[in-house]
Write a structure and sequence with these properties.
The complex is a heterodimer of chains A (about 160) and B (about 575). With about 160 residues, chain A is α+β, with helices and mostly antiparallel strands. Chain A is about 25% helix and about 40% strand. In chain A, strands 5, 6, 7, 8 and 9 form a five-stranded antiparallel β-sheet that branches. The longest helix of chain A is centred in the middle third of the chain and has 13 residues, at about 60-75. Chain A starts with 8 loop residues before the first strand and ends with a strand. In chain B, about 35% of the residues lie in helices and about 15% in strands. In chain B, the strands form four sheets. In chain B, strands 3-2-4-5-7-6 form a six-stranded parallel β-sheet, sandwiched between helices. In chain B, helix 3 runs parallel beside helix 4, helix 11 packs antiparallel against helix 14 and helix 15 (about 365-375) packs across helix 16 (about 390-400). Chain B starts with a strand and ends in a 29-residue tail after the last strand. In chain B, about 55% of the residues are buried. The interface of A and B includes residues 21, 25, 63, 67 and 76 of A.
Chain lengths: ~160, ~575
């Protein structure tokens, strides 16, 4: 026998669950109880069905990820668990800036990341970007010099190809 | 049929074939208890603590193979039951536990005896439900029984608010369940099974590693045949005691922390582990990186999550063991049992080198002798339950188990206080057998109130208290690993156990000699009432051999060869 001691890597796990009370806490309890990581978690109902889809970004060794998918599948309201490499992944972020910042430059940056200015008030502007999580990271680095007041990330959603 | 939620509970239990319910009433579950009063479809046994109700239901389930049922009230009734739920979850025992809850209108208001029961039971049950409409009750109860007994069995908790038990709705129980998201995999993959058989045929030193899953799957007959026909030696886990008979020459013994030297050496030397219904628990494997280091692993289990969780399986087979063992049996002609002759000799040499034994003492009874003696006197006629500690390990090591479901103990959770109430459930399920509970002077006090249940219900459990005036297992670790600092483990201040039993209406014996023990056991069996037999045993006896926590199986602390007094 061999003991697997390989390194932790980022993985995206999609879970289809029956849309019923306390199903989300079953999932999050499982992660906390067994010491698994949740980097981000999104959930929304699947249109015209009794199911919801969760997208969980997690990290772990191959062995841990295998356990996560098996343990998730063991939960009674879980219909399916996907853990693929070949996925399309997107995330959204909202960022608030002071109106006194260079709005033209900010707007140009946002457009480079599939985004735009979505709201302007007397003192602040709010921008939106939607892109791959890694590119969202890049965007957030790039806008640092415009002194963002608040940043909200949606967490990743993913679909296997 | 339009009936109340409380009536639905009764009807559903009867339709599920339940004949015994363990429980304790209280405010939020009163509507259901009112219906229990009116019915005669099943018997209700009133324990004297909710924890004991769950353990009794566990004992009942383990002895009978059926789903155990317990009923409790909200708040403290439920929280008292949590230890039992966790115990059943760890040992894969099928239970349906029904609790009362405050009325829907009070949920979330910190009402009297309100607690988020579903939130608490979630990590220690296979599944749980909060019922919010009586119309859902028939489906939920049917699902609860189905989920509890199928796949890897486990406890299912159903929490019912008081107003739901009063609500009138339509009851129909004769429908087919449709659980789209729960479909246990029961049939083993034929190609994987064939590969496993080929691996066995090619192995030089294969070893059966038998676990409690065999008992859950009622697959002991198939496994006994498999072992016998292949001539491959077998080790049992603590949970698998009785899968093979103690008379089976191929049974090397129990493995693990307090397993026999031969069993642990066999596991260390094998080139193919054939794991059936096991989960590679840390008390079994010791240091994982050294466990069966040179072996490939076949792992058969109904729970896919058990496979390759701790030890990589080269031949994973997900399925019900009765099916898989049956499929394996149909292909065993490929295996030549003569081939393993040398391997069997090697193992026999291990057993001769360090047999599982103990040294007698002229002054005091040795606890191991008590277990052996009960085995000689009662043998197959007794069902054995235990509490947790040294006595538990001695029972597992020295009792001559001859059949599955004979040994009932708290393995995974290690719950002190399990044994006595579990024995009540065992006796209720299997009244024709003598019900013996081996316990210690520490454990017995954790549920001794069950004397009252036993007296009231006339359940003649015989509790054999191996009294060393210590919390023995912790004391043993303190002696060995904490430089003899016996912190808070000296239990010299004790009740009079004889009078304690008598105070409830039971009988009691204090035993100092072997002759007194034989006489006490004979008398207790004849009198057929609940009994405490307190045996004053050697104070400092250790459970040996032993793999120190985190050590390797082949590196055991062994019984000293010479008697030391």
């Amino acid at each position: 026998m061999t003991v697997n001691t390989d390194n932790s890597e980022r993985r995206v796990v999609s879970v289809i669950v029956v849309n019923e009370a306390s199903v989300l806490s079953r999932i999050t309890n499982l992660f906390s109880g067994r010491g698994y990581n949740i980097t981000s978690l999104t959930v929304a109902p699947i249109p015209d069905s009794k199911y919801s889809r969760l997208t969980i970004v997690t990290a772990g060794s191959v062995r841990v990820i295998e356990q996560i998918t098996k343990q998730l599948h063991k939960l009674i309201p879980v219909l399916r668990v996907y853990e693929h490499d070949d996925i399309v992944e997107k995330e959204m972020a909202l960022v608030k800036f002071s109106i006194s910042e260079n709005i033209t430059e900010i707007d140009t940056l946002c457009q480079a990341y599939n985004g735009k200015i979505v709201n302007v008030s007397e003192s602040v502007i709010i921008t939106m970007v939607a892109d791959e999580p890694k590119r969202i990271e890049n965007f957030l680095q790039a806008i640092k010099r415009y002194n963002p007041k608040e940043i909200v990330r949606s967490g990743a959603v993913a679909l296997e190809r | 049929m339009q009936i109340s939620g409380a009536q639905m509970v009764i009807e559903a239990l009867i339709k599920e074939g339940v004949d015994t319910v363990f429980g304790y009433p209280g405010g939020a579950i009163m509507n259901v208890y009112d219906e229990i009063y009116k019915q005669d479809g099943f018997k209700h046994i009133l324990n004297r603590h909710e924890q004991a109700s769950i353990h009794a239901a566990e004992g009942y389930a383990k002895a009978s193979g059926k789903v155990g049922v317990a009923m409790i009230t909200s708040g403290p009734g439920f929280t008292n039951a949590v230890t039992g739920l966790a115990d059943a979850y760890m040992d894969s025992i099928p239970l349906v536990v029904i609790s009362g809850q405050v009325p829907m209108s009070l949920i979330g208001t910190d009402g009297f005896q309100e607690i988020d029961a579903i939130g608490i039971s979630r990590p220690c049950t296979k599944h749980n439900y909060l019922v919010t409409d009586a119309a859902d009750l028939p489906r939920i109860l049917k699902e609860a029984f189905y989920i509890a007994r199928t796949g890897r069995p486990g406890p299912v908790h159903v929490d019912i608010p008081k107003d739901i038990t009063a609500q009138i709705a339509e009851f129909d129980y004769d429908f087919a369940l449709e659980l789209e998201t729960y479909k246990p995999h029961v049939k083993g993959n034929p190609r994987q099974i064939k590969k496993a058989i080929d691996a066995i045929a090619n192995a030089k030193r294969p070893l059966f590693y038998l676990g409690g899953g065999i008992i859950n799957a009622n697959a002991s007959d198939e496994v006994r045949k498999l072992v016998q026909i292949t001539g491959i030696p077998a080790v049992e886990t603590f949970m698998a005691r009785g899968v093979l008979s103690h008379e089976d020459a191929l049974l090397i013994g129990m493995l693990g922390m307090h397993g026999s030297y031969a069993a642990n050496m066999a596991m260390s030397e094998t080139d193919l582990v054939i794991g059936l219904g096991v989960r590679f628990d840390d008390r079994v494997t010791g240091k994982l990186s050294e466990f069966a280091k040179n072996a490939d692993v076949i792992h058969v289990d109904i729970d896919p999550a058990s496979i390759s969780k701790l030890v990589h399986a080269d031949y994973p087979i997900v399925g019900d063991l009765k099916n898989v063992a049956g499929d394996m049996l149909s292909q065993v002609d490929k295996i030549n049992s003569d081939k393993y002759e040398t391997w069997r000799d090697t193992i026999n040499n291990f057993a001769e080198l360090h047999p599982l034994t103990f040294h007698e003492d002229t002054q005091r009874i040795k606890p191991q002798w008590v277990v052996k003696r009960v085995g000689e006197l009662l043998g197959d006629d007794a069902n054995i339950s235990t509490d947790v500690g040294q006595h538990q390990m001695w029972a597992a090591q020295f009792y001559p188990f001859s059949r599955p479901r004979q040994f009932i103990s708290s393995g995974g959770l290690g719950t002190m206080g399990f044994g006595f109430p579990a024995a009540l459930g065992v006796k209720a399920a299997s009244p024709e057998k003598t019900s013996i509970n081996f316990t210690g002077d520490g454990s017995i006090l954790m549920n001794c109130q069950e004397l009252m249940t036993a007296v009231e219900q006339k359940i003649p459990v015989i509790n054999i208290i191996l009294n060393n005036n210590y919390l023995g297992m912790v004391r043993q670790w303190q002696t060995l690993f904490y430089d003899k600092r016996h912190s808070e483990t000296d239990l010299s201040v004790q009740p009079d156990f004889v009078k304690l039993s008598e105070a409830f209406g039971g009988i009691g014996y204090r035993v100092n000699t072997k002759e007194e023990f034989d006489a006490a056991l004979k008398d207790a069996v004849e009198k057929n009432v609940v009994a405490f037999i307190e045996v004053i045993v050697h104070r400092l006896e250790n459970v040996m051999p032993m793999v120190p926590s985190g050590g390797s199986l082949f590196n055991m602390m062994l019984l000293e060869k010479k008697e030391t007094k």
